[in-house]
Amino acid sequence: LRHGQVAVLCRTNPLAHAYAETLRACGIPALCLRRGGILAAPECRRVLEYLRCLADPDDRDALAIALAGPVADLGSVVASIMADPRGPLDALAVFRPEVAGAIARHRSWVQRLRPADLARRSLEELGYLEACAALPDGGIAERNVLGLVERIEELRDRGLLQIIDDLVTEIDSE
Question: Residue 72: its pLDDT value, please?
C-alpha cells in the first residue's frame, strides 16, 4: 500500500487525533480531516485567501494571509509590509520583488482566465503545488489543493468572488 490509499474512520475527533499521532510516531504520514473536509485544510484556506486578494485588490486581510503563508513565506514581516505607507505591494517589492510581480501579473489574469485556470496557473507559477508536494505528509496537502481546484472548476458558472464566498460558506456550515 502507498500513502493516501488507506482511510481510518473514527467516531470522535479525539480518537482520530490519537490514531494520527500514533501513526506519525511510527513515521507514517497521517491527516485528520476536520469539519469542512479537505477544503478546510490550512493549505486550501490559504489558496482561497490568495485568490480573494487577486479578485479584490482592496482586501488587505486576504493579502496579509497570503503573504504570511507559503505564497511568500513572509510571516515575520507581514505587519510591516501591510503598514507601509507606500502600500503593501510596493513594500513587498522591497522584500520579494518576484512575489510582488507575480501578484500583479495574477491580478491581470482575473478577468481573462476561468477561476480554476487562474488558480492552477498562479499556484504553479508561485511553486505552491511543488511546496505542498514537498511536505512530509505523503502528498496529502498537494492532493487537497488539487481537490480544491477541481471544486472551483465544478462552480465555473460563477464569478471568482462568488466561488470563494460559496466555498467558505460550505466549509463553515459543515
Answer: 67
**Amino acid 70: pLDDT:** 59
Q: Provide the residue type at 166 as one letter.
A: D
pLDDT band for 13, please (50, 70, 90 cuts).
Answer: low
- pTM of the complete model: 0.76
State the alpha helices, DSSP H only, in the chain. Answer: 13-25, 42-55, 60-68, 78-83, 88-95, 97-109, 115-126, 128-133, 140-154, 160-173
CA distances from 147 to 55, 98, 107, 119 (A): 21, 27, 23, 12
Nearest to 7 by CA among 95, 123, 138: 138
Cell of 10: 473514527
Taken as a whole, the chain contains a residue count of 174
For 107-143, write each residue's pLDDT tens digit.
Answer: 999 999 999 999 999 999 988 889 888 888 878 889 9
For residue 169, count CB atoms less than 10 angstroms from its CB and return exposed for 0-12, middle for 13-18, buried for 19 or more. Answer: exposed
Grid coordinates given for 49 = 485567501
In 3D space, the residue among 25, 5, 4 whose CA is nearest the CA of residue 141 turns out to be 4
- Cα-Cα-Cα-Cα dihedral sign, residues 85, 90, 94, 99: positive
- Comparing CA positions, the residue from 124, 110, 94 lying closest to residue 59 is 110
Whether the pLDDT of residue 16 is over 60: the answer is yes
